[in-house]
Amino acid sequence: MTQEIIFAGFGGQGVLSMGMTLAYAGMLEEKEVSWMPSYGPEMRGGTANCIVIISNKPVSSPIVRKYDTVVALNQPSVTKFEHAVKPGGTMLFDTGSIIAPPSRDDITIVPVNADEIATRLKNLKVKNMVLLGAYLGVSPVVSIESVIGALSNVLPERYHNMLPLNQQALEEGKLFVNTFVS
Prior knowledge:
This protein is α/β, with parallel strands linked by helices. It has helices at about 15-30, 75-80, 115-120, 125-140, 145-155, 165-180, and strands at about 1-10, 30-40, 45-55, 65-70, 85-95, 110. Helices cover about 40% and strands about 25% of the residues. A 6-stranded mixed beta sheet has the order 2-3-1-4-5-6, sandwiched between helices. Strand 4 (about 65-70), helix 2 (about 75-80) and strand 5 form a beta-alpha-beta unit. The two termini are about 25 Å apart. The mean pLDDT is about 90.
C-alpha cells in the first residue's frame, strides 16, 4: 500500500499543517513516510502545497508528478492539479472556494463543504482538519486517533486546547464523505 497525496491551497489555510500531521500520523503507525512542502516567498496568501507519501515499504523519492489523491483548498489548486491525479484516483476540494469544479470522468471527484462544517463547529480554522478527515474517509491510510496523536506533537502546546475541536472536525469530515460516497 502506497498513497501519494498532494495538499494544495493558499498559504495560511493550513495546507502544510495537514500534510505534516498526516505524515507524522503515518510515523506513529510505523509506516514509511515522506513530507515535502512547497510555498512561494510570500507565504500567507501565496500558493502552498505539500506532497505526502505514506507506504508500508521504503519511499524511493519524495518527488511525485502524478498523485493518488489531490486535496485542493482553492481554485488555482484545482486548475493546476486536476490533471495530476492518476486515472482512478481521487480529487477532494473545498466547495466554498471553488468556482469551476474538476470535471474529469476518470477520477473520483469529492466535493466537501468544509466552510459549512467548520462554521457549524464555530471555528473556520479547522477547515483543514475537516478536509483531512474527508480524505481519511476516502482513503483510511491512518486512523483519526493517530492524527490526533500527531497533532499533539505538531501543534505548539498553546494550541492543545484545540485538540478536541480538531478531532471533531476530523470526524465530521470523515462522516460527510462516508455519507457522500455511500
